[in-house]
Amino acid sequence: MPLSRLSLEHFRNITAAELELSPRFNLIVGANGSGKTSLLEAIYYLGRVRSFRTARPKHLIQDGQTWFRLVGRITGADNAEQTLGIERGPQGQTLRLAGRPVRQLADLVRTLPIQLLHSDSHLILEGGPRYRRRYLDWGVFHVEHGYHATWQRYAKALKQRNAALRTSRNPRDVAAWSPALVQAAETLHSLRSEYIAMLLPYVQGNLAALVDLPGLEFHYQPGWPEDTGLETALAERYATDLKRGFTQVGPHRADLQPLIDGVPAIERVSRGQQKQLVTALLLAQAELLMEKSRRPCLFLIDDLPAELDHGHRERVLERLLALQSQVYVTTTDANAIPVVAGDSGKRFHVEQGRIAQTG
Ligand SMILES: Nc1ncnc2c1ncn2[C@@H]1O[C@H](COP(=O)(O)OP(=O)(O)OP(=O)(O)O)[C@@H](O)[C@H]1O
Description:
The structure is a single chain. The protein is an alpha/beta fold. It has two domains: 177 residues, 3-Layer(aba) Sandwich (Rossmann fold), CATH 3.40.50; 165 residues, Glutathione S-transferase Yfyf (Class Pi), Chain A, domain 2, CATH 1.20.1050.90. It contains twelve helices and 15 strands. The protein has a six-stranded antiparallel β-sheet, covered by helices on one side. Strands 8-12-13-3-14-15 form a six-stranded mixed β-sheet, sandwiched between helices. Helix 4 packs across helix 7 and helix 10 runs parallel beside helix 12. The two termini are 23 Å apart. Bound molecules: adenosine-5'-triphosphate. Adenosine-5'-triphosphate binds next to helix 1.
């Protein structure tokens, strides 16, 4: 469901803004340092309840202020409207959905699926497994019901087992958590495996449209040696787990690695191909979400010209619009953005934190 309206107060360098958004294509133009990324960050925060630039939300509050507020209105295909809001101040954060306080963060996140392409997106390839797990888990969360609850069960069992490893010298205290841990882990593994099997054809389709990488394949590693199984892997690592004070195997160590001829793809691709590959991965998730749940996602692209060459910009935007995604693109140069949305797009100009609709 697209955002039809967004209001921001005291967010980064944006003092106050009220925006009526296009359900299709929103172009955000402005000079360096004007506030374009801050606007994308606000949308992202509303949908994911975290920033892609800082782990400390207090930095999002405008200098000299003590709180920020974001309110979005989403409009469904049947024109049904829903409001979601986040306010952060000295007393912490309050989340509201349809006028009511939200207790489970996941409820808000489920309401507004968001994908982001920006200068750090290459970390999916170049960074450690946690970046690829985050990529994978976004998709599984939105597509597989029950994933979130299982993940919570797993995280609880893992935390207790780790606490027992650190505080108790009795192997039985540690082993007591194994059945819950293993059961949740196996469910997570099977949900992730099912999701990957569904996702890969979409990845291949997008790769075919965007980049030619012969020999590319994806290797999923569940977080423990598959030939032994998790229970045995836990038993085998008990002594080193005890020494280190944490559990070394489990779905929290999973990875989904793109490989070319058996080596990480990152070793074999150019910088431009890296960006095309990452874009294909993100598009594939948006496409699968649409196919599986009939839910379009918001797609944010920060500084599109810096990410892709002209031909790829056009292809990516066309694919996104065909998917009915609501697209947000920032740029310093409007001429560098292909005209794809016709009359259904809107243009905003940002200058020193002030946002004006210009088309
Ligand atoms: N908490 C804050 N309060 C006020 N201003 C802030 C805050 N955090 C960042 N800024 C400022 O907001 C401005 C806008 O930053 P932003 O990254 O959104 O710009 P941008 O238009 O995306 O720039 P670029 O094109 O260079 O990427 C910067 O000058 C930054 O210093």
